[in-house]
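## retry 2 of 3
previous attempt timed out at serialization; input unchanged, resubmitting
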Amino acid sequence: MGDIAVPQINLLPIERYWFLTWTTYGSWLPGDQRGFVGEAVDEDGQWRPHNEPHSPSAMPSAALAQFSREQLVGPPILLNVSQADALLEQFLEMTAYRRWLLVAVGMMRTHLHTVIGVTGDPKPEKILNDLKSYATRRLNQNWSRPVSETWWSRSGSKRKLAGEQDVEAVVEYIHRQPNPLLIWSRERGVVFRADG
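## retry succeeded, writing output
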C-alpha cells in the first residue's frame, strides 16, 4: 500500500474532539489482567465506570475473565496489516462523508484508537458506532465473516478531549503504541506500517 490519499473535505468548524478506542471481539475481555475499560466493582464493592477522562482502568479479575471467556461464541479476532490498510481507507472515506476530521488512527491486532473532530455535539456512542459499522462493512466485503458474527467487542472507550493540548497528547500517545499494525495521523500521514 502506498501513501494514503486523504480526501479533500469541506469541513465545518470543529467544535469537539473525541478519543475513541475499541477492541476486536474476544481479544480484551472484562477482567483481563491488563485491566480493562468498562463498569466494574471497585475494592469498596461499588460499581463504577472506568471509561471517563483520566479515570484508571478497572482492576483485573480472574473470575470475571474466566466468565467472559466462557461467553464467547467464536475465537478472538486478531487483525492483520491488510485489514488495517482497508480500515484506514474506510475511516478516511467515512469521516470525509460525515464532514468530521480524522486526526489520528492507531491500529493494533487487538484494538484501535482514533481521534475524531466533529462539529456540533453528536453523541460519542453514535460516532463510535458509525466507525465500527463502516469498518464491519469493509471487512465483510473483503474477508470471511467471523464465527461470532462480529469483528468488535460491544461499545468502547469514548473520551472527550478538552482542547488542543489534549489532542496533541493523545496523538503522541497513538504514535508511541507498541507493536502497531498501522499508525496514521493527518499531520504526518502513515507514521508506521508493519511488514506483511
